[in-house]
Amino acid sequence: MCYATCRALLTLCLLASASPSHAQRGSADADDGRWLENCHDGWGDRDRGRDCEVRPVSVRVTGHSLEIDGRENGGIHVVGWAGDSVRVTARLQANARDDASARDLLKEVKIVAEGGRIHAEGPREGGRNQSWSVSYMVFVPRRFDLRLDAQNGGLGVDGVAGRIDLRTTNGSVSLVDIGGDVRAHTQNGSLTVHLAGTKWEGSGLDAETQNGSVRMSIPDLYAAQIETETVNGHVSTDFPITVQGRISRHLSLPLNGGGATLRAVTTNGSVTLSRR
């Protein structure tokens, strides 16, 4: 039986330089004007007609929870702020054979907000030459419950603590400076967790991707029980670990005395735990 101390399996990766701060992230993504300009420009690809629109969504929330369904196409980004109100803007995009047809298509799309639930309704898509999507930029109090669903779109939450349930099929999941009872799942997309402070405030995190990488950025003095795993991929960490026997692709790390269990796993993808 052997005992060895290793810096992880093979390579070391740093995420700190690639992960923007909470404030930078929120302000950049929240710029509706920039989004509208990029959308009209087609993000460098204007092979079809296009129209874009930003609509404020009037939301009446009686409690401290919000549910958003991104439907077939659309991502959702939620940012916690110091205010006690909820602000939502819908970002609509349509593609058609020409700009006029795309503009007409967007006129048929409605944003439905009822009882703390939001979703979009619109015409059936007409093949490759006609499509529409709605994404959401959301501001909520820092302590708030969220349920976000999407099919083809990414989900992101910055600076919110509460009961948070995130599910998408094709899209990445980004969790920045959050807490509470958090569950997140994507079928095809990366999973990024950017922790802040010195410990997790709440019961813990359970996050999973089937096909995508896991990247977790952890402050140097953070106290938690980190659980991560990959079936087909490599594992990298900046944190020293003690291994007894065979090195596996499952890591269980009690950092700084341990704490809430933070689980982030993948089936097909690499895992990176970086210190900052």
Descriptive account of the structure:
The chain has 276 residues and is mainly β. It has two domains: 126 residues, no CATH class; 123 residues, no CATH class. Helix content is 10%, strand content 53%. The strands form two sheets. The chain has an eleven-stranded mixed beta sheet, sandwiched between helices. The radius of gyration is 20 Å and the shape is globular. The N terminus is likely disordered.
Overview features:
10-stranded mixed β-sheet; 276 residues; 11-stranded mixed β-sheet; 2 domains; mainly beta; disordered N terminus; 21 strands
Please report the number of helical segments. 3
Which shape, going by the Cα principal axes? globular
Instruction: Please state the CA-atom Rg, rounded to the nearest Å.
Output: 20 Å
Structural class by helix and strand composition: mainly beta
- Measured distance between first and last alpha carbons: 33 Å
Share of residues in strands: over 45%
Supply the number of structural domains.
2
Instruction: Walk across the major sheet and give the strand order.
Output: 1-18-21-16-14-12-10-4-8-5-2
> How would you state the average pLDDT, rounded?
86
Helix content: under 10%
Low-confidence stretches: 1-27
Describe the main β-sheet briefly. Answer: 11 strands, mixed
Count all strands and give the number. 21
Reading the helices and strands in chain order gives EHHEEEEHEEEEEEEEEEEEEEEE
Outline of this structure?
By secondary structure, the chain is mainly β. It is built from three helices and 21 strands. It has two domains: 1-21 and 172-276, no CATH class; 31-153, no CATH class.
